[in-house]
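Good morning,

Attaching, inline, the backbone tokens for the sequence recovery test we're adding to the shared suite. The designed sequence is right after.
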């Protein structure tokens, strides 16, 4: 049974989920609730690839933490959530666990009143067949869109045409629209260029891309060449402004798990034409994002544990941070979390962190400008 559940059985939209026994349920009987007619639109803005949380003793899914986190992000104003992304440790989950994470995320959002918030589900796999199966699972579990990494195990055998064919085949047979996920660091260095992504963008069931490669020139080319409505998204919060300036629609960034309000505010400032404020906020956000980029999901969960009292650890064999590493991560995130606190409080002058001006002069200057602009 998932840890921390208070009942011997948990019902999710008519499905009885009894621990690992839920793994054996046939999700086909659940398909009707999440038909394409009810698909939620993707809206420009900020999205978070959510971590999956585990019980610190048993390594089993921590369902309440997964649900709590999803609602916290929605309350901060995010435009959507991603499950089974790199932060979501999809490679550490069984197929049934992947389904369950998406189901409980969708239900948590619905129960909190965020029924129109879309859920994107990571569905990349090493074969075309399995990727399509994961897309079907995603729809059955309440996902609105699938996000697909290119296969990489037989990297030396994949020509450019093979990868194009992979995405086209998955998109053609997927029951939900897909986004291309370009993350060279996760797939042995495979880096889809702008010609490939722009070509794939013309497929009617490929509706966007997440470019974690950080190549803003590529992002600009894709955004210019893609058909109207195509969601060209940056893959990290540290280049939010660069993404938006060259025509991107927003970001899908891991930092939004820690400071969702700051990431949303940065997007909103740019869209409101407040360039100076946006640039100053981007600097604070980029410093915080560097901690996530260096430490990955281990640092993200460490920060959540330190500041929000939930998060746990990555599933083995991911290492648990030492006490010194925990303290280092907490310290490195402090400036950004002070900004998050200020924004959550409503950007009031009384909440400016004047007492921390010596340590964080740029933060205090930013808070003063934000308070004056409110």
């Amino acid at each position: 049974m998932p840890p921390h559940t208070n009942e011997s059985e948990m019902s999710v939209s008519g499905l009885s989920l009894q621990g690992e026994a839920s793994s054996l349920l046939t999700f086909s009987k659940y398909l009707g609730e999440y038909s394409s007619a009810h698909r939620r639109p993707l809206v420009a803005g900020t999205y978070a690839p959510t971590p999956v949380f585990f019980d610190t003793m048993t390594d089993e899914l921590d369902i309440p933490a997964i649900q709590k986190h999803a609602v916290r992000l929605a309350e901060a104003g995010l435009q959507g959530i991603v499950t089974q992304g790199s932060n979501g440790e999809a490679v550490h989950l069984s197929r049934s666990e992947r389904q369950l994470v998406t189901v409980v995320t969708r239900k948590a959002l619905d129960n909190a009143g965020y029924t129109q918030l879309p859920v994107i589900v990571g569905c990349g796999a090493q074969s075309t067949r399995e990727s399509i199966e994961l897309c079907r699972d995603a729809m059955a579990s309440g996902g609105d869109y699938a996000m697909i990494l290119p296969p990489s195990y037989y990297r030396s055998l994949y020509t450019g045409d093979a990868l194009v064919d992979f995405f086209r085949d998955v998109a053609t047979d997927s029951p939900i629209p897909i986004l291309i996920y370009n993350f060279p660091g996760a797939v042995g260095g495979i880096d889809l260029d702008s010609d490939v992504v722009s070509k794939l963008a013309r497929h009617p069931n490929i509706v966007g891309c997440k470019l974690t490669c950080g190549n803003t020139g590529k992002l600009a080319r894709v955004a210019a060449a893609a058909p109207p409505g195509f969601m060209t998204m940056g893959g990290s919060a540290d280049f939010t402004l660069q993404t938006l300036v060259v025509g991107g629609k927003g970001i899908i960034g891991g930092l939004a798990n820690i400071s969702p309000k700051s990431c949303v505010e940065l997007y909103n400032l740019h869209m409101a034409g407040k360039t100076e404020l946006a640039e100053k906020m981007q600097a604070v956000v980029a410093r915080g994002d560097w901690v996530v980029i260096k430490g990955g999901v281990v640092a993200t969960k460490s920060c959540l544990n330190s500041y929000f009292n939930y998060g746990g650890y990555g599933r083995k064999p991911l290492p648990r941070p030492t006490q010194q590493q925990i303290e280092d991560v907490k310290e490195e995130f402090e400036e950004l979390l002070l900004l998050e606190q200020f924004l959550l409080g409503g950007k009031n002058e009384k909440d400016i962190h004047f007492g921390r001006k010596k340590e964080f002069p740029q933060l205090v200057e930013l808070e003063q400008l934000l308070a004056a602009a409110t």
